[in-house]
Amino acid sequence: MDKVLFAGTAVTRENAIGSLYRMEHGKEWVKAGDIPDNAAVQAIVQHPVDVNIIFAATRKGIFQSRDKGVSWRNVFSPDGIQFWSIEFDPRDANHLFAGTAPIGVFESRDGGETWAACEVNHTERFNIRFGASRVMRLAFHPTNDQVLYGIAEINGFMLSEDGGKTWNARTGALVELAKDPALKSKIETDDEAEGMFDAHAITTSPAKPDALFYLCRMGVFESNDRGKSLEDLQVRKFAPFSYCRDLRVVAGKPEKLYACFSISSRSEAGAVYTSDDLGKNWRRADSQVNPQSTIMGINAHIKDGNGVISVTRGGQVFYTFDGADSWFEKPLPENAGDAFCVAMI
To answer: Which of 127, 141, 192, 204 is the most buried (most CB within 10 A)?
Structure first.
């Protein structure tokens, strides 16, 4: 592990900076000079083979670094398209997918040098105050290379069964769950199903290849039939709040999950929880620290399962190198915008 940390921010107030920050452990945060101050960095991923290569998905395009985040170049920025997610194919390090707003998916087969649009059939369900829905996360089936999953905020679950060429909405299970009074929620619209469609993350684990874990405003849900049905894992039994923003599987420990729970998208509290049994039971992992706003992002080192990092909307960054036994805190600079994503290499 290089112990290099990254955090992405967005312009959320006057004179704030929405860019990428980099820090070597023990030093200070440095803003990336090659990514615009209004780019709004939404996702950061490291190449699974070449440790020098990192990608950042931003509202101003996709950026790539080939020197562990010291310098960056824009590799793709089509007009009118914002990038909110980017993922490497676990079977082919030259194969990537990126999710967008308005809802869309792009694919690269040459390590991110060129990109092509996939076919996405996932029309907007709601009229949302902040505009178009965005594809917040993509995930690969661990053993079937034809099956990929995606989620959109606020538009629910989508599925590809042809290796990512085409994507289709699969939202019937969300509508059914939203009939439960405990899972009704409306903030941006007048539809009480909205909360179940307010998706923030999706992931899979080789410990249970046919399972997917769907994270939304209302909690964490599991499906074993590609989203046709969803089971509520009822995180409310273990945590005092259940607004769920991010979820990660731990390298080398495929049954271990980390997730961040808060009160709402803008709040004064949050916590990182962990599960050793794929979400059946949860316990707090970061009780040594005091998050003072919603935890918007969490990430785990792609090789070392002891490395975990989280960030609050207000810019508190917490990280551990020993599997959550101890934590460091390093706030972002005061002029940083709201923070949304983090990573460590």
So the answer is: 204
